Amino acid sequence: MNAGSASSHYEASTASNQPDPRRWRTLGVLGLVQFMLVLDMTVVNVALPRIQHDLGFDGSGLAWVVNGYVLMAGGLLLLGGRLADMYGRRRVFLAGVGVFALASALCGLANGPAMMVSSRMLQGVGEALAAPAALGLIALLFPDDKERIKALGIWGGLTGLGGVSGTVISGALTDLASWRWIFFINVPVAVFVLFVVPRLVSESRMVRDRQRLDVSGAVTATGGLTAIVYGLLRAVTQPWGSAAVLLPLIGGVGLLVAMVVIEARSAHPLIPLRFFRNRTRVVANILALLNTAAFFTYVFLLTLFEQQVLRYSPLQGGLSYLPLGFGIGAGIAIGTGLMPRLGVRPLLAMGFFGAATGLLLTSGMKVTTTYVGGILPGMIVLGVSSGLIFPAVVNAALHQVTGQDSSLASGVQNAMQQVGGALGLAGLVTLAFRYTGDQVGAGVEPLVAASEGYALSLRIGAVALAAAGVLALVLLERVSAQPRNPATESIGGLP
Description:
CATH topology: Growth Hormone, Chain: A
Mean pLDDT: 82
Number of domains: 1
Structural class: mainly alpha
CATH class: Mainly Alpha
Largest sheet: none
Distance between the termini: 31 Å
CATH architecture: Up-down Bundle
Low-confidence stretches: 1-16, 480-495
């Protein structure tokens, strides 16, 4: 297939305004992969004590079972998105799923810390290839305005459901079988996807017109993101002013600045600078970062609170999140129904203000807290509100994206989610731990100190979410999910 003819089934169908009849089945299969990818960001949390015991991790090394995945996924997502646009979204997606399946099997077979961490990093590489390619395909398969809103709503909601389900699935498998099965279950899912997707999805890529990958831009963008995520993750165990934190953060920012200079001069940029001229798209990605920082901090700290303070078993802790999943599902249904009539801006504002309220309700946690009276109310409010946020922010992040750059836009959005998760882990979670340590040093009973530290971080997360709600009201335009015709636009042809 030559570059000129490779613009794909999607471009032909968009030009004739005939959607792919396989689009909803394709959404189901690609959505399964998205669920699996997001789930693996949180699925290890509940199982970490068992992994530490069986593989002989020390305390600082254990954090890299989570950090290794986030580091590689967050650093490589932009590159993965551009590779998908240029060399074929289906091809890169299948390659990513294959890498993820192999890495999952290696994680399950790990016999020591080095094998586990390296395999988790390889999983992150698989996500960086598969996630933006999959979302890029979804954005192209649904040219109709209302259908696209619904499809992206379902897709965005899977982010929250995957994050919640990780704790439920991990708790059940860790208690009833072995932590190794939290990785092994990915393999049959991936094999199924590798078999089905080529039969459902036509290849699509940008009209290349002698386009080649901007190597300098790719190196600086990937290196910059990786260094920033690494610096944020190091802040979990090192002071913010230490060289271990500041050097990678400063180096990462420097590489991203160099990337901007390179992209401005490049004839074939990795990220066309016109991509960032759309205010709604830029704001939406900032909102995605703030949302995931607060949401995954909530899941992480509440898991610790339930197991360390309330003495829940892994299975009890996992099952305790079921109302959050149901709430997210309800919010998705409400949001996708209202979005065509209200638009994204009011839904995001309501969602962020509601999520802030949910965190504030939860921040009343004490050693005497009960599940029904102290945890469940905030969990329900947060769940429904997050269900409004996740699909709306995805629609805003893909606002007026052309078929040429759909996977790149998806890579940017996914990268912001990963950086947000790292920021929550490095900032809010670290703050909770350090406050707890200071309180214990001052003579406060450890469980009381832990509860107060977790509560403090949740309140700060609530402030961040409320600020996000204000940003949504003030800066977002009215979002239309209708894509432009990629056959008539040049690379990066964005407003």
